[in-house]
Amino acid sequence: MKHFLGCFCVRGIVAVLLLWSGPAAAQAFLENYAPAMPKIEMIPQKEFEASSVLYQDIPSGDKALSYKFRLPKDWEKPADSANSTYQVSDKVLGEIVRLYGPPLVDTRSYFSLMAINLDYALTAQQWLLQYLLSSGFTIQGIKEHNENRAEVLYVKVENGATFVIRTVAQINGKRIVLAQYVMPAENWDSEQKLQAQAMGTFELTHEVDEDPEEMESYVLFDIARFKYPKSWEFKLQPLKSVDRMGFELLNVISTFSLQNRTAKTLDGRIQVDVVSYDAIESVGSEIDQLKANLSKIGLVSGEKIETRTNFKFMPDVLHSDVEVFDGTDDKSNFLKYEYWLVSVEMGDYYYFVHMITLSRDEDYFSWARNTEAYKLILRHLEPLGEGTMMK
Fold it and tell me: What digits encode the pLDDT tens for the residues 30-60?
């Protein structure tokens, strides 16, 4: 069942159409699908290093995939396990290298290193959850080390056999690399320590500083440069005065005809309002007006959910904390939204960057994609000297 709010029409009627793709309460979602990792006693580090071999390489000369990890000395690396012409795909996880443990009857464990290009910005944990749940795997535990690194333990059934897999996912620029230790379930008691210890040694050794997806650039006169994900649609607001300017970014799902008008189905909207010092009474009054304006698209802003203080900005940007409010459809209490808002001060202007997204309680993965795009936009907001308006 799909619910939507308002429409976005060709005659400049500004509204937003948000698609609801199903409930996934965030806290309940994480509690149900992302339990904490089980505690496993590790092998003493010196003992493990003495009985293991260090593997390290730069696959196909691609520094973004440079890796190192340790495995026991009796593990085997087949001659054809490393592909010298390996290319990272946009759609399929490609294997970089595989090593095998000693055979036990008719089964054996193996270690695999795979990579794929990111479609859009997500944290490592969000990507892992999306990948594993869409594949139908049963998650036993997950740990977020940081936004770019997460670890998970899950169960996979393949051709009637059950495997316990421990995976470390690490984002490096546009890539996400998965190191996996795949173990037959019957080896769990004897091999769980080794599995945990080996996965703890995996790391990418060359950090790449690049955005996870292609970015577009927009320069507003001579005052500021913005960058935004290319997958979002840019819409410039009509310019009536240099005291008040702005644009919208739309996470468009589809475009269709509705009563002789073109309408868009959206998963989220980010709006940037640029207001000169002379045109503003106070930051607080401007924020109150922005929240009140939500009624024009059928939303009501509610209580503050949280304050976010960990966003990154350019050095010369003065900013408030990011405030997050709950929101509801004024015609339906069943749909929940979130309204994100931050005020930024640069030169002679205030910048209000605000976002409407389906709430984490409605669609966790749409919320995750929208909030990560919001982070990227704020990180790239840059004051300028003289320049011209261009896109």
Answer: 667 778 999 998 889 899 999 999 999 999 8
The dihedral through the CA atoms of 80, 84, 85, 87 has a sign that is: positive
Cα–Cα distance measured from residue 149 to residue 128, given in angstroms and rounded to the nearest whole number: 10
Which two structure tokens, joined as six digits, stand for 335?
Answer: 């749909």
Taking the model in full, what pTM does it have?
Answer: 0.84
The span from the CA of 314 to the CA of 248, in Å, is: 21
Question: Do residues 148 and 210 lie in contact, with contact meaning Cβ atoms separated by under 8 Å?
Answer: no
Q: Tens of pLDDT along 232-282?
A: 999 999 888 889 999 999 998 766 666 667 666 788 999 999 999 999 989
| Domains defined along the chain, listed by start | 34-204 (3.40.1000.10), 215-383 (3.40.1000.10)
Helices (H), 178-328: 188-200, 283-292
Residue 315: Cβ-neighbour burial (10 angstroms; 0-12, 13-18, 19+): exposed
Strand partners, 162: 157
The SS3 assignment for 34 reads: coil
Confidence at 297, pLDDT banded by 50, 70, 90: confident
Q: In the structure encoding, which two tokens stand for residue 23, read together?
A: 């409930």
